[in-house]
Amino acid sequence: MTDPQLYTIIALAAYAIAMALIGCFSFGKSKTLDGFLIGGRKIGAWVTAFAYGTTYFSAVVFVGYAGQHGWNIGIGAIWIGVGNAILGCLLSWLLFANKTRKMTKKLNARTMPDFFEKRYNSKGMKVLAAVIIFVFLVPYSAAVYKGLGSLFSAVFPGVETWVWMLIIAVLTAVYLVVGGYVATAYTDLIQGIIMIVGVVCLVVAVLSHENVGGLGGLIENLRSFESLPGDPNPTTGSQLTDIFGGSSFKFLCFNIMLTSFGTWGLPQMIGKFYAVKDTSAIKRGTIISTVFCIVIGCGAYLIGSASRLILGGQLPEGGVDSVIPAVLMEVLGGGTFGIILLAVIMILLLSASMSTLEAVVLTSASAVAVDLIPAVRKKETKPQHQMLLTRVLCLVFVACSFIFATRNIPIIVSLMSFSWGIVSGCFIGPYIWGLFSKKITKIGAYAGILSGLLTVGGATLVISIQSGFSAAASKSPEMGVAAMAVSMVVVPLVSAFTKNKKEDSERVNEIFACYKED
């Protein structure tokens, strides 16, 4: 066993023990359904802010997005991190956090489907939303497994990737099932601290590398960069140093919009606002989460933009997904301090992935246990039974995600490409307009969900017929952005031509009175 492997195993063991202890500590606070799903609506600013940020950024951001876009686009890729922090985090908190907290508390809504049912008085909408969450978020969690599994395999080349996926699955299941949202929130706080320390250290290590030469050296060396003969992704120095992404400007814009505005409609992100305890916590949380996202997002893409210099322009054998693992081994593979820092970075990426994974699994499990099954059965289910079923389904969904990730099931892999855009595209219109306007009707909300679904589905069908499914999958960012835009336009437009019943109007007026309370 090499030194990097030994230090990493020690760090992993300490991390696993800490997560298990937090799960046990949180068990007493998750004995009710409210406690298990939203922490009894008593979560403070720091915990909520870090929960939001760590759910936002997983290993997929580092290993996939930062590696791929940093390698292909260069310095301009940092705009994705800036967009995520300003649009996906700051604006989301400013516009939606307080209204979401107040309205979901008034409605006693614990999940996104539950919010739709009570806001629009529609059990059918609740069922539809729960099905969309289940179909598209469980495959997304499989992508998180794969990203992290490939990274650990780079440090432990003799161990199969599925072994690391299994370890991640078991660790996540233990503290999630035992402690529920409270456990995930407090582990997110610890994971967030690890992520900040790790990213800052890694940025310093990358900029200090002899091939980079500091921030000024990064720009100067990239400007004079020339691709190697036979490079499958050839580029020029002017492209890599173009602040607006050069020829990749359009691609860059769509990725910024998808990964930033997408958070406005994702249930695992919005759910953090259900749990925050009061307005003052939201004000503090807005600043904390924005700073967190700036450090993590910009740091990740800065590291990716330096990858060509550190690796000498040689794309690793595994392609762009192996760029960041190769950078880590090159920058931190030698010396005791570098090896220790490598162990910290591995925990950083494990933390980033597990926080995203736990949020997605809890969202999916609650959608089925609390929203779908009771609605289909048409029979009242006791809260304690819903909570037990949610715990069981958390285990089931962790297991399903693990199986999907290890088996490379074609349809599941395909769904991963569309998961973020299609879920947000379906929910963003009904959710946002439902918070801000009394005039939005049930038919308008339905139209928003279905239009988002049909936008992606219709575009996928047309492109697949013309150019094949792989071409459609490559257009998934554009489809996701289009679905969100269509949903935001369709909801008020259809609502303008339809009317609520008198009793529905009175009910809505009573709901909106929550903004005058507190």
Kindly estimate the percentage of residues that lie in beta strands according to DSSP: under 5%
Structural class: mainly alpha
SSE order, one letter for each helix or strand: HHHHHHHHHHHHHHHHHHHHHH
**What is the third-level CATH name, the topology of the largest domain?**
Sodium/glucose cotransporter
CATH architecture of the largest domain, please?
Up-down Bundle
What's the N-to-C terminus distance?
A: 59 Å
**Average pLDDT value?**
81
Question: How large, in whole angstroms, is the Cα Rg?
Answer: 23 Å
Largest sheet: none
Low-confidence stretches: none
Report helical residue fraction. over 70%
* Total number of domains: 2
Number of helices: 22
Q: Give the C-level CATH assignment of the largest domain.
A: Mainly Alpha
Shape by Cα distribution: globular
Total DSSP E strands: 0
